[in-house]
Amino acid sequence: MNKLRIENVSYRYSNHYQTTYALREVNAQFQSGQFCVIEGKSGSGKTTMLSLLAGLDLPSEGTIYLDEKSYRELDRDKLRRNQLSIIFQNYNLFPMLTVQENIAYPLGLTGRKKGNWKQRINEILESVGLNETMQKKFPGMLSGGEQQRVAIARTIASEAPIILADEPTGNLDTANSGRIVENLKKLSHEDGRCVILVTHDPDIARQADVLYRMSDGRIVEKQNLFVQDGKETVKE
Length: 236
What we know:
This protein is an alpha/beta fold. Helix content is 31%, strand content 32%.
């Protein structure tokens, strides 16, 4: 079981004139099989927290652990290649590659034999509500909602145990937003992945198994949703 843990993490930006803290003494943990949400307004520190979880930088103070191994001890390039998949708000698809090639890209990285790709891609497209006629299209030929679902399809194909999603529904309508959240919840609950989603949307936050609310670089509230004997209870 993969477990991410943030221990007393602070992150600061400094120049000749001042030091600004984006995060202050943050503690949190995330586990496989959980749909976790980090909610906060712009400037609350949630995107900085996601960037540190992705290993794009190291904390100024404190430590991030993956299965009790510090990020400082890990090869962070290898971490992102083998353990993490990131869904960006702007989709981050390769514009000169078809939908099929975008989804196949992580399959190649994971060493899957090419003969099995087409069937696997069809299965993945169906799981996100798209059909195989999309495979030969380029990202610029798709709507925003379709592009985001292709981005999620690529994440599914990666088989990464940890998924980091940066405001993945920020530019989408209500219907497409709902579909994407359901897909991410399935990845956690049915595939056993650790899904961590950053959002400012309280409707999405209410669907979390574990919710962290942030303000001014700090976690100001944590909620754990447990299901026991068929009943939902919230412990804070």
